[in-house]
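[job 0412] stage=fold_complex status=start
inputs:
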Amino acid sequence: MMTLDSTDVGGEVRASLRERKKLATRRSLRRVALALVAERGYSHVTVEDIAEAAEVSPRTFFNYFPTKEAALFGADQDRITELRERVAHLAPGEPALTALRLVMVSDAQTVADELSELGGDPADWLRRMKGAATDPQLRAARAAQMAMVERAITEGLAERLGTDPERDPYPSLLAATAAGVFRASISFWAGSGGTVPLGQLIDQAFQALADGLPERSYVSHLTGKDNH
Amino acid sequence: MMTLDSTDVGGEVRASLRERKKLATRRSLRRVALALVAERGYSHVTVEDIAEAAEVSPRTFFNYFPTKEAALFGADQDRITELRERVAHLAPGEPALTALRLVMVSDAQTVADELSELGGDPADWLRRMKGAATDPQLRAARAAQMAMVERAITEGLAERLGTDPERDPYPSLLAATAAGVFRASISFWAGSGGTVPLGQLIDQAFQALADGLPERSYVSHLTGKDNH
DNA sequence: TGCAAATTTACATTGCACGCAAAGTTGCAG
DNA sequence: CTGCAACTTTGCGTGCAATGTAAATTTGCA
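[job 0412] stage=fold_complex status=done
writing structure:
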């Protein structure tokens, strides 16, 4: 129990064969799942299809991901916990809204990084996934995922502000708006093929919130087009 | 095809036996589903259980609800479409934020009404459901539901503002925040056993958003307690 | 009363998810 | 380099959600 599966070489951590294989299998499953879904649509891809394309047994799929959709956009429990910690403790002394903005920008960058990590053209992935993203099941799964993220933010905020979400709706409200900023920005960014600078989108949305929501848009100069 | 299943009597619409039975079955399924889930938790209640308790066949359950969770909190497609229309056209001339506030307050009242319609003590239902509400599956289902609502709001806002959500993230952001206000308020209200005035909660949250988010809470005087 | 339409039901099928134990790999100590 | 211990993969069986189909059953109405 609790073996390392890795060898420490002069401060560097070299993954063991076992570890590398596991990571390869995980990535293969994810890549194949995304490719199949982009091609046929979410509801026309079974776990069996994914397993077959990745050349593992269907049972092995579930050793890596708890559900079919987790292979598509899996933020595991560790990362969600880490998110809560960052919201709670990043930039202490700064206003909560500032900390949230920092965390959201950083996480958005992570999303963009993972997209590149997939191999191939990131813009191509975004374009291919666009059709599949209309599937209700997939939307539902994504919403559930974001709800978990939002919950983590709520808890982090509650800790940061020293308040209890049960007695004070403010952390929930702030978390909901932050998650909303994140979603709206990411989805707009994805729709642009990843060309619009994501960090700026998020920053401007937060600025709009901090200043009080305006009646109309807040980003026309980014797209170079008239938004109404 | 397209029979009325109802008899028009002097301007009043009297439901036919068929219609009344259908409504009774639907309500029975919902009530029984809620009761069983409150008692055992979502994942320990099968569709078969619900059907049996409601004295219909399992297949009939799916004639009324597309999924298990739809029986618990089902906003059907008609109501979601209607929501979009209200967001788009209610109080024309007023700012979008004002229209959103009106629609959200009104919908919150509908939620409260449906709770009473269930029979028994509303506060009792809230208390009983509280435990079951921690179930991840149920959370996921609720999130998916809210995502559909949020989407409808986005579309309604886009129409109202004459903008395209694909090119302008503003409707999405506004919809996300409005949905966030709704969720945070409802959940806080439910946590209070339905005692805190829901309309005021929502109004104050919108006011906070319109003014620019404050660093701390905005409702301390409602609970009568210190929120930090 | 009897026919047409709507509704319920039984039956079969597909797919997700998970527990379990057997078979196959990998890591490492001797 | 060999053999054991830990880990991973796999096959098999189970339960449950969800859907299609066609045969009863019930209701509305002439």
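[job 0412] summary: The longest strand of chain B covers residues 6-9.
[job 0412] exit 0
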